[in-house]
Design goal:
BirA Bifunctional Protein, domain 2, two-stranded antiparallel sheet, 10 strands, about 25% strand, globular
Length: about 240
C-alpha cells in the first residue's frame, strides 16, 4: 500500500465513522456543492468563472438548513489558494462542520472529545480524547514563549474581532466569542478546530459583500453554536501521537 493510498483510506474511515456517529445522534447531514456564488473578501480564494468561486468556507450556506433542523453537519472539500503548500496547508482539504442550538463552549469541547472517542473506539486509535483540557485567552496564547513538554488539548478563547468570522460579540467590543481548540504535543501547538456562536460579522476585513441576502434571521434567533475541523489534521494528530 503506497503512502497516498494509505492516507486516503484513513481519511475515508474517519469520514464514515464521524458520519455514522452524528446520524445516530439525530444530526441531519446537509449537502453543499464545491462552488459558491460569492467570495470572502481578502482571502486566498480560487475563482472559477462567471462569478463562481471554489468553496472557501461552509458558512453561510450551511446555516440555511438551520431553519428546518436544529442539529446538522456537513462533510466536504474546501479550497484555499495557499501561498505555500505543506502537509497542513493544501489547495484542497476535507472539513466537518457541526451545529446545534443554545450551546456553550464547554458543550462544544465535550462534543469534540466525544467524536474523538468514537474514532478511537471504531478505528482502534490512541486515547487522545482522555488528554487533559486547558483554557487560555488569545492574548495569553500570543505571549506564550513555550508550551509545556506534555500532551494536552488547549482551548484558546476571547479572539479579537480581526480573527473572527460571523461570530457573536464577546466580552467587549474588541472581542468575539470565537474560540479554537489546539493539540499540544512536545511543546508544539497545532490548530485543530475553529468554534463560535453564529452572529453578525463585525470583522471589516474578511466579509462577504451583500451577505444580508445570505443570512436568515430565523436561523440567527436559534443561537446556533458550531465548530469545524480538518480531517487530514485529525489523521495527522493521531499519527503524531503514536
Amino acid at each position: 500500500m503506497n503512502q497516498e493510498y494509505g492516507e486516503q483510506h484513513t481519511l475515508s474511515l474517519i469520514i464514515n465513522t464521524l458520519r455514522a456517529t452524528l446520524l445516530k445522534q439525530g444530526f441531519f447531514e446537509h449537502h453543499l456543492y464545491s462552488t459558491q456564488k460569492y467570495k470572502i473578501e481578502n482571502t486566498d480564494t480560487f475563482k472559477v468563472k462567471n462569478g463562481l468561486f471554489l468553496r472557501y468556507n461552509p458558512e453561510p450556506d450551511i446555516w440555511q438548513v438551520g431553519e428546518k433542523y436544529d442539529r446538522f453537519f456537513w462533510i466536504g472539500s474546501m479550497f484555499r489558494n495557499e501561498k505555500r503548500l505543506s502537509k497542513f496547508h493544501r489547495n484542497e482539504f476535507t472539513v466537518i462542520d457541526i451545529y446545534f442550538p443554545h450551546g456553550t463552549m464547554k458543550m462544544v469541547v465535550a462534543k469534540f472529545l466525544s467524536l474523538l472517542k468514537a474514532l478511537e473506539t471504531g478505528l482502534h486509535l490512541q486515547p487522545l480524547s482522555k488528554l487533559p483540557v486547558r483554557y487560555l485567552s488569545h492574548e495569553e496564547f500570543a505571549k506564550q514563549k513555550a508550551l509545556l513538554r506534555s500532551s494536552f488539548w488547549m482551548v484558546v478563547t476571547d479572539y479579537p474581532v480581526s480573527e473572527s468570522f460571523y461570530d457573536t460579540k464577546g466580552k467587549n467590543r474588541l472581542h468575539t466569542n470565537k474560540f479554537e481548540i489546539f493539540y499540544v504535543h512536545n511543546g508544539v501547538s497545532l490548530e485543530i478546530a475553529a468554534c463560535g456562536k453564529l452572529g453578525e460579522n463585525i470583522n471589516k476585513i474578511n466579509y462577504i459583500k451583500g451577505a444580508k441576502k445570505l443570512l436568515n434571521k430565523k436561523v440567527a434567533k436559534k443561537e446556533f453554536i458550531g465548530f469545524g475541523f480538518g480531517l487530514e489534521r485529525i489523521a495527522y494528530t493521531y499519527k503524531l501521537f503514536r
